[in-house]
Design goal:
By secondary structure, this protein is mostly helical. About 65% of the residues lie in helices and about 0% in strands.
């Protein structure tokens, strides 16, 4: 199948398909004499794997490691779990940081009168507590 058909079957764009191939996540695919890429079911399956991993927020480096483990039938599931748990910890750290931002902004918005006066604790905080 051509790149458009493979991309559609995997739920990614043709541009991302080329990008994943350029990064080495997707093995180089054979080309026709005219230079068109020809994808098989295995390529589509790999593209779906990559798309799902991206949907879960894995980085390109993590996906490369996961793909290597996926293709290695002698892998230890502990290696896969280690990558997943490290990603879970990173997601939790980012969630905690975003919740702290949300609490701070909610507090600042609560402290702001939101009227015609120029005083605004939100802007004061953004300016480092100084009034300009």
């Amino acid at each position: 199948m051509n790149i458009g058909e493979a991309a559609a079957a995997a739920g990614v764009s043709a541009k991302m398909t080329r990008h994943y191939e350029s990064l080495g996540l997707l093995p180089k695919v054979p080309r026709t004499e005219a230079g068109y890429r020809q994808y098989d079911d295995a390529s589509v399956h790999t593209l779906r794997f990559i798309r799902r991993a991206r949907d879960l927020g894995f980085s390109i480096d993590e996906i490369a490691k996961l793909l290597g483990l996926w293709h290695n039938r002698r892998r230890a599931s502990a290696d896969v779990k280690r990558i997943a748990l490290a990603h879970v910890a990173d997601l939790q750290r980012r969630i905690d940081e975003m919740q702290a931002m949300q609490r701070t902004l909610a507090h600042l918005a609560h402290c702001c009168a939101g009227d015609a006066r120029p005083d605004c604790p939100i802007l004061d905080d953004l300016a480092g507590g100084r009034r300009e």
